[in-house]
Amino acid sequence: MMSSSMVHCRAVSTELPVAFRDFFAGLVEQRRSPGPADAFDRCFGCGPAHPSGLRVRVFEADDGVVSPIVVPRVYEGPPDAAHGGIVAAYLDEILGGAVVRATGKIVVTGELTVRYVRPTPTETPLLGRGRVVGDHGRYVDVEGSLEEFGAARVVATARGRFFPYATSGITRGSGAS
User: Fold this and answer.
1) Residue 172 class from Cβ within 10 Å (0-12 exposed, 13-18 middle, 19+ buried)?
2) 22, 96, 125, 137: which has the fewest C-beta neighbours closer than 10 Å?
3) What is the side-by-side strand order in the sheet with 140-148?
4) Residues 130-157: tens digit of each pLDDT
5) Which domains does the chain have, with CATH numbers?
């Protein structure tokens, strides 16, 4: 049994942190299908029902998507910097959001390559960017970045290959991933 002190929960909020409000004013957020019937409701990266998840939000931009990110200190790796796996998880969600924006299809990650440019600060506003670079029918190639918001200093970049999510024969709790 997990004690409540081991679980990091964040309330789901539609409010953006103050630092992002002007930049994101007027942008359209990509919305998910609400409720437990959503296959990704408990996704660590984007699911609103995951108790300690990242709850990544993506907004439509002219060339793909943008995402407001503040990495909580609880996900720290080196002092004052996010753990690399958490940085990869944020980028994975942003890239997936770019594919959904471009194709309208729900997708899963087939490949993800991350380049860590500099330490990703915690508790600091970051801007995620993602855009499709090739739609090959069976899969979609996408690239993106995380940058320090306002400074436009890139902290990490990523390239990924995403595949349509095959829902046939998969039900919640079936163990399929």
Assistant:
1) exposed
2) 137
3) 59-61, 64-70, 125-135, 140-148, 153-164, 107-116
4) 999 999 999 999 999 999 999 989 999 9
5) 17-28+58-164 (3.10.129.10)
Q: Which string of b and e fits 40-69 if b means at least 16 CB within 10 Å?
A: bbbbbbbbbebeebbbbbbbebeebbbbbb
Q: Which residue has the tokens 């980028």?
A: 91
Can you give the pLDDT at residue 149? Answer: 95
Nearest to 138 by CA among 167, 165, 113: 165
pLDDT tens digits, one per residue of 63-76: 999 999 999 999 99
